[in-house]
């Protein structure tokens, strides 16, 4: 065991709650000081109290979960081998296939899409002992930083019910923040793990591209695994992220015949050992001043803890060009989800667009209809950016940056994502400018963790995005663990506490 890593300690059951870290709950379950059925019933009481209003968990199988919890308790008593998640209550993002339940992706026309198999990553969680009892809400097509759809309705933030919990894994983040679940996982192509973790004050990890199987996370009319998209864990503790990723990651199917995943262990564990770049604003995506202030204050805390923090240090790419490459490749991927009429509309509009029009709407339409020859040119630009990152990581361990343009913004279901704006520093900016922060890691397939770092002047939680080099997933997670250990981490929303 590394001397810098705290050993596992069994916490007395009376000091545990539905807000405890999964690793602590799991240790108590293995020790027999807590039963899976008891924890599940505590979870159900919390769900019954808060979920009717917050609307995070939209599908439940309580009786099946009770049977599985009882079986988990019986397995422990009989001395059978126990997995790392043994007996922990779990929910999962609605879009992941779970045998016998629907996976709609928020689409009304998929309301009868009952899965015949369980997604590989979900099945791995269950095989590790998790007791899956429900599914958490998503936005339509997983394409929003709000979480609402015509089937299940709107999910609210437990920190401020007039604001978004984030998306597209918004239901997942609320489930963890409020004690509805100990184990959760989401997907991320445009910050869908990182954004709700940031807005809800919890931890999240977007893995390096390709290390977690996406089998079972496809709509029925799509049969190719998308570029950029990943599946990753959300958690109340950074210690949980390591365990969850261990369970989820690794080759599957034909790949497993010859490939093995061996992510390098982190070389550093204490904040004083790290050298990091820190940025808090961009010429592409202006960041709200209260969130900027929170990030700068966090930078000072890192320095006080002994970390080497270099303000403004980032790879030497042009921010606007980076954003354009990301949007062109991102929206080329998501074209597969679009109805035929949207594609045909783009075909009509693109020839008339001005070459100077670099708006998000213009980039979206060009990406929708570009030739494969064009895609290869944009992909080549991505590879040049990836090379720049690799060189940069020769000098720095991590890049720390915003997760979005602000802390959670007010709910707004008017118009479409393409036309909406959000309030930033006293004026309105495009809803989609903040994709810049998602693209920093996603475009180049990099791992990125999110850790809560405190609250802005309005009392809303904010997180820091921790970007590491490709396949070095354990380093940003180790940094998140150091933040949690040396500065602080998850705090339950006051509205979720008993007696609230």
TrEMBL record:
The keyword rRNA processing does not apply. Transmembrane segments: none annotated. This is Aspartyl/glutamyl-tRNA amidotransferase subunit A. Residues 38-474 form the Amidase domain. Pfam families: Amidase (PF01425). Its EC number is 6.3.5.-. Keywords: Ligase, Plasmid, Transferase. GO terms for molecular function: ligase activity; transferase activity. Coiled coil: none annotated. NCBIfam families: PRK06170.1. GO terms for cellular component: endomembrane system. InterPro entries: Amidase_dom (IPR023631), AS_sf (IPR036928), FAAH2 (IPR052739).
